[in-house]
Hints:
The chain has 437 residues and is an alpha/beta fold. The chain is 30% helix and 21% strand. The protein has helices spanning 23-26, 44-60, 68-75, 79-90, 96-108, 112-121, 137-142, 181-193, 234-246, 283-286, 311-318, 333-341, 362-370, 406-410; strands at 13-18, 64-67, 123-124, 148-150, 163-166, 169-172, 201-204, 216-220, 223-228, 252-257, 271-275, 278-281, 290-295, 304-310, 325-328, 348-351, 354-358, 374-378, 395-399, 431-432. The protein has a six-stranded mixed β-sheet with strand order 8-9-10-13-14-20. Strands 2-1-19 form a three-stranded mixed β-sheet. The chain has a three-stranded mixed β-sheet with strand order 5-6-7. Strand 17 (354-358), helix 13 (362-370) and strand 18 (374-378) form a beta-alpha-beta unit. Helix 3 (68-75) crosses helix 6 (112-121) and helix 3 crosses helix 8 (181-193). It is globular and about 75 Å long.
Amino acid sequence: MVTHYVDSEVGRLGTVMLHRPGPELARLTPRNNDSLLFDAIPWVGRAQEEHDAFAAALRERGVEVLHLAELLTETLAASDARAELTEQVLRSPRLGDQLRARVADHLAYLDPATLAGVLIAGLAHEELRISRERPGGLVYTLMDRHDFIIDPLPNLLFTRDSSVWIGGRAAVTSLAMPARRRESTLTDAIYRHHPRFAGTEFVYHPTMEHLEGGDVLLLAPGVLAVGVGERTTPAGAERLARQALAAQLAHTILVVPIVQERATMHLDTICTMVDVDAVLMYANVASTLVAYTVAARADGEDPRMDGPVPFLRAAADAMDLDQLRVIDTGLDPVTAEREQWDDGNNTLALAPRLCVGYERNTETNAQLERAGIEVVAIAGSELGSGRGGPRCMSCPLLRAPLGGDAEQAAASSVASPYRAPRAGRKGAGPVVGFSGG
């Protein structure tokens, strides 16, 4: 059994899960790209080349790269996993009884690799095996030949959103957009059925309130920031806070409201960690971000909530720092807006002061270099068409603990006790109730 452990954004990255884009991207057309959450029709071959270069850059720096499609194929070799995922797609109320039976017949004949391909790339009307003896029925007849019986998952590329590891536990999230909800089902099945993840404990499940991994930042051991906006709901943030505090995976959760816009769909589109005390941040909104600080009560009652206070102040207090170093996206408001849209803020830290970013964000990358942060620049002209950068495209499974030993962390399936943050900092907000189930 391999134990996975992540307690920060910047501890040296040991293992990561990626998804190499494939036929699901070729399913995008001008008719469906909006509903499938893409801003453009990507050049699939170039997107694959860019993703291969991204994976190679990680391996060159000692990172073990796992591919989701391969893990899914291996997971589907287990009969219970296969039955579970097949039942999930057959449950769709769009199918009707007769078509559902034909789809079940079709899937039953597929080997694990081919079935994994269908669960990722979908099944089009014209691809279903239909005969005179076993017709598809009214639903099938009234479908357009290019309609999907099983929808493709082009956003599976962004593996961060469907799960995040907090300490030694997996949080399999509840994705807000209908086009993405099956992604969590696949990730959940991998963690529960694949031999590599045997014994995995969970801190969040897809049946819970809407929460997406792009909104969850592990600012420091024991300190989480959770964005609330277009994708993660206040109820989702509250649920994660309760779960993480109860499991002693964190001592402080910062809940950060963000503008509900496409450009700022997740917290990691405006803020990512690049060092133990440094954040790369979209300057146009940095001064307006606030946070509500959620912490456990000693008596075991409902968590305590303080705030709101400025996010940077709340984060520094929770992280036991005098202040956070802030590195701005771009050099001026216009460039900052352009490079934020192009995922300039969405960096993946490989270690303290070492991160991966898109090469096109030249001014942001220069800002990072001037601040002592080495940037591994990768191409992303096609990968970014779904609004996501290196952080979005990666789910860390193992990071070395900050100031600790990676092997020691890998031997433990739960987070170690954390030092509580300093109390009584100037600027702390009033204590208010924190209710909920």
